[in-house]
């Protein structure tokens, strides 16, 4: 007897420690009861001898196209998460692949830089992401830095400004080319006792708040958050409910974070209890 689990697809990079990237995505998919399918865009290996800096290797664009063909020929995929892409050439092949078929949801985690990378390291990638992939997204999940960058704001220091950023990102792309939903994440960086996220759907603002778990950033939180939204959407949830589950899973995963020798701990998806 064959079975038909909901299928959740991710196009993202490998982060070799298991804390972030496609490793975190696939664990999240599994934890939420979906069948994970993955296409690799790049390989990141932190360098313990050089302050855990990022050693980054892009996957050949043709190999990305081949993986996409294998995945989409094998399964009827209609919900996809986009994680780290890394180069303009990668962004181009992923955008062309996405354009080759319809999607119910494209969840974009607009990874501009990851923890440990210097801001500014990826400006050409940022531009390509904004021009080629953001218009294909239905849901985008920027953190504070990404929200600031995408909204063109100097700073975000309050809930009101976080909402303003979500509105601007939505309006900037409000030419019918998506994203219909913007989830701007305040995280530990936005001051206050709670970790606050806001969802703007073009009409209403929904605020999701949970007491902060410490003041340190935890690796894999952004990946897990967007992956959990993707899994829930794959199972048929609406976006508001999907964000609620994602928020709960990340909060629990940070409470049960995995101690590591890196300067940051990582999220433990296995701790999640619905
Ligand atoms: O956390 C963002 C992220 C996403 N994807 C990959 C990464 C990182 C950060 O290290 O390496 C592959």
From TrEMBL:
It catalyses: pyridoxal + ATP = pyridoxal 5'-phosphate + ADP + H(+). One of its GO terms (molecular function) is hydroxymethylpyrimidine kinase activity. One of its GO terms (biological process) is thiamine biosynthetic process. The keyword Methyltransferase does not apply. Gene3D superfamilies: 3.40.1190.20. Transmembrane segments: none annotated. This is pyridoxal kinase.
